[in-house]
């Protein structure tokens, strides 16, 4: 089947264009900045409310698989990002390198990791558990990783208190209220997904408006955007190769290899954009999230093709 364009990606591109042509400025800036903070808090509150505690602990007995995925997400990815930066620090601007390193510190996706694992006939319960655990732990680990990685590069991120107030506290409140509103939130998961995506679009518009007013596109010519895409593609290729080969060497089954490959190579746009809005100054958020937006699309194309490749393998379940 032909690859269908991602409607959310089209919405993101349209939002970036809108912010480039009609950026918010003047009195509208604090309004959008406060709105972004509010919608981020709502988004993480609803994530906490939707996530059942049974799902959080289900499948944790497959600890070797989850440990490998978490190591790929939070250890191998940052290491490769720092290695590429050390080898070629002048390939892109400093703000863009911050975005690439930030990308390397993010947790895995949830929906697309599970979807591609399902298409490829991998270990779906393990994928659900691994992707969920990655996102939960990412709320704690990503800010710490960003601080450590960027400190190595002579840069700094936002404070831990901002993460606690804007991300972690709403998530915990959602979990506390999960027995009360959890069933409602899960029944309306599709409707609430529009709320999540709308929140991200507001944050992207606010971030890119600030960046455009600061001269983002004059500092970032098309050649730089092409270089960002190339660096993203190299990172993804390295992770796909390492996760696929490494899982075989560690003795995992084909189904587990598929799960490790898809969950260990992905990075979340849904949590990454709000985190960037909290961790970085408004003037740099636009250039910081640009590598993540490009990586998001590249991983969709590459993993869609890879999932179809795995899906064509012979069915050995009856052997």
Q: What is the level-2 CATH architecture name?
A: Up-down Bundle
Output mean pLDDT.
81
Measured distance between first and last alpha carbons: 29 Å
Q: C-alpha Rg, in Å? A: 19 Å
Q: What is the overall shape?
A: globular
Description:
The protein has 15 helices and no strands. It is mostly helical and 319 residues long. The chain has one domain: Na+/H+ antiporter like fold. It is globular.
Descriptors:
single chain; 319 residues; mainly alpha; Na+/H+ antiporter like fold; 15 helices
Quick synopsis:
With 319 residues, this protein is mostly helical. Helix content is 80%, strand content 0%. The longest helix has 30 residues, at 282-311.
Question: What's the layout of helices and strands?
Answer:
Elements: H1 7-21, H2 28-50, H3 53-57, H4 63-87, H5 94-104, H6 111-119, H7 124-152, H8 160-176, H9 178-187, H10 189-213, H11 216-219, H12 222-249, H13 254-265, H14 269-279, H15 282-311
Helix pairs in contact: 1-10, 2-8, 2-9, 2-10, 4-5, 4-7, 4-12, 4-13, 5-15, 6-7, 6-13, 6-15, 7-8, 7-13, 8-14, 10-14, 10-15, 12-13, 12-15, 14-15
């Amino acid at each position: 089947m032909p690859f269908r364009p991602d409607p959310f990606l089209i919405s993101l591109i349209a939002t970036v264009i809108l912010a480039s042509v009609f950026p918010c400025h003047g009195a509208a800036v604090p309004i959008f900045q406060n709105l972004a903070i509010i919608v981020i808090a709502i988004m993480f509150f609803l994530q906490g409310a939707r996530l059942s505690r049974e799902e959080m602990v289900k499948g944790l007995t497959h600890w070797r698989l989850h440990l490998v995925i978490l190591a790929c997400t939070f250890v191998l990815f940052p290491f490769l990002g720092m290695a590429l930066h050390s080898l070629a620090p002048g390939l892109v601007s400093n703000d863009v390198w911050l975005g690439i390193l930030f990308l390397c510190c993010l947790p895995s996706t949830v929906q697309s990791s599970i979807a591609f694992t399902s298409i490829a006939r991998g270990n779906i319960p393990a994928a659900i558990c691994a992707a969920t655990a990655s996102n939960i732990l990412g709320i704690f680990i990503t800010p710490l990783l960003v601080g450590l990685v960027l400190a190595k590069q002579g840069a700094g991120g936002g404070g831990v208190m901002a993460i606690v107030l804007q991300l972690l506290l709403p998530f915990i409140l959602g979990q506390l209220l999960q027995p009360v509103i959890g069933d409602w939130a899960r029944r309306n998961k599709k409707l609430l997904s529009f709320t999540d995506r709308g929140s991200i679009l507001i944050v992207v518009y606010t971030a890119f408006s600030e960046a455009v007013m600061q001269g983002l596109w004059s500092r970032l010519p098309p050649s730089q955007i092409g270089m960002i895409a190339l660096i993203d593609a190299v990172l993804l290729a390295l992770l796909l190769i390492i996760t696929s080969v490494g899982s075989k060497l560690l003795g995992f089954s084909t189904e587990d290899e598929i799960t490790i490959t898809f969950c260990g190579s992905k990075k979340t746009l849904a949590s990454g954009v709000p985190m960037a809005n909290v961790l970085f100054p408004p003037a740099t958020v636009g250039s910081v999230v640009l590598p993540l937006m490009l990586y998001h699309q590249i991983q969709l194309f590459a993993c869609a093709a890879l999932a179809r490749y795995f899906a064509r393998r012979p069915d050995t379940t009856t052997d």
